[in-house]
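Researcher: I'd like a structural prediction for the single chain below. Treat it as a standalone chain; there are no partners to consider.
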Amino acid sequence: MSEKIKLIIDYVFISVLWILVGIVFYEIYFNDFVGHLDNALAFILLTNVTFFKVIKLHKYSWFLIALLVLGVFQIVNFNILQMTFRAVISDTNSFSVGFDYILFLLLVVYCILRRDLVKHIISVVFNGSKEEQTQQENKMIAFYYDKFDSCNAEELTVILKNFGDYPLEAQKALNKIKVERNLINIS
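Model: Treating it as a single chain, here is the predicted structure.
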């Protein structure tokens, strides 16, 4: 998917959220709807996401997904419609969690349209960033290098015969040792 299409998708979803916030504030101002903290929080966070988009912060889409997730569970509230489900957690009704079907649908559609972003987020969450992966790989190469560098020539010959059985980091360390010790012919 091209960057232009991704940009259009993001602008459409941010615009839809602004329309929902606009409806809430219209109802508050003209129809005596009582606004709550979750409505104000939705406005503030949407303003931040829009600002991040305007200044071209690279990870603004992460914030947009987070905002949609918060909206799905009504931690931030983008609508005044009663098309939601609320479950009260305490007897005093001091905190309740809802489920907004409209924002859930928006979140699903956004994730389908930006599945590359969702795959990237899942990859970073479970595997770490590219820098972290590179750092971990370099640490493992150094570990195997230190381990194999202490071996004598006979031990190294046996290890090199089983070269394919070792992890990739170990193979890279062994290749470095082969070059350093001029053992290019052994494999």
